[in-house]
Amino acid sequence: MIDIGLSKMALVGAVALIVIGPEKLPRVARTVGTLLGKAQRYVADVKAEVNRSMELDELRKMKEQVEGAARDVEQSIQTEARAFEKDWNEATGALSSADGAASAFEDTPPAPAYKHPGKNWRLKRGAMPQWYKARAGVRTKVLSGAARVARYRPKKFH
């Protein structure tokens, strides 16, 4: 990189003061600072984009590896399933050729279908409305013992 020290910066400032003049120097310095800031942001954006593209490439490679491993697992499962089916067919074929052991299983009736119990709809339909409870004097709120005594205590006559 460029080695810029304090002495070199002072020399550049003095030359700029002489060439540009004291009236225009603050505006030029502000413009140069703005341009340098934009350049730094542009360089940072380019670096971030390069890093993102590198990470994206790494993720693509990792995705391909995972997909390959998944394909291998799927193929091994399929081969194992075929072998299991073959063994199952051989085993069940031996049972059906035995002394009618398979016919004992065929005579049993199928299990009934599952029926969800649901909610007790009779409770909802039989629920008493609040206006009826209020008219009939049904208690809807719980009173503590002290509140009940205070409410139902006989009135004193003076």
UniProtKB/TrEMBL annotation:
Report the superkingdom from the record. Bacteria
The cellular component terms of Gene Ontology attached to this UniProt record, alphabetical and capped at eight, are: TAT protein transport complex
State any single GO MF term.
protein transmembrane transporter activity
The Gene Ontology biological process annotation of the record reads: protein transport by the Tat complex
The family database entries (InterPro entries) matched by this protein are listed as: TatA/B/E (IPR003369), TatB (IPR018448)
Entry keyword annotation includes Protein transport: yes
> Sorted alphabetically, which keywords does the UniProt record give?
Cell inner membrane, Cell membrane, Membrane, Protein transport, Translocation, Transmembrane, Transmembrane helix, Transport
Q: What membrane topology does this protein have? A: Single-pass membrane protein
Looking up PANTHER family in the UniProt record yields: SEC-INDEPENDENT PROTEIN TRANSLOCASE PROTEIN TATA, CHLOROPLASTIC
Similarity annotation: Belongs to the TatB family.
Tell me the function of this protein: Part of the twin-arginine translocation (Tat) system that transports large folded proteins containing a characteristic twin-arginine motif in their signal peptide across membranes. Together with TatC, TatB is part of a receptor directly interacting with Tat signal peptides. TatB may form an oligomeric binding site that transiently accommodates folded Tat precursor proteins before their translocation.
Self-association or partners: how does it assemble? Answer: The Tat system comprises two distinct complexes: a TatABC complex, containing multiple copies of TatA, TatB and TatC subunits, and a separate TatA complex, containing only TatA subunits. Substrates initially bind to the TatABC complex, which probably triggers association of the separate TatA complex to form the active translocon.
Know the name of this protein?
Sec-independent protein translocase protein TatB
Q: Which organism is it from?
A: Paenacidovorax caeni
Give the gene name: tatB
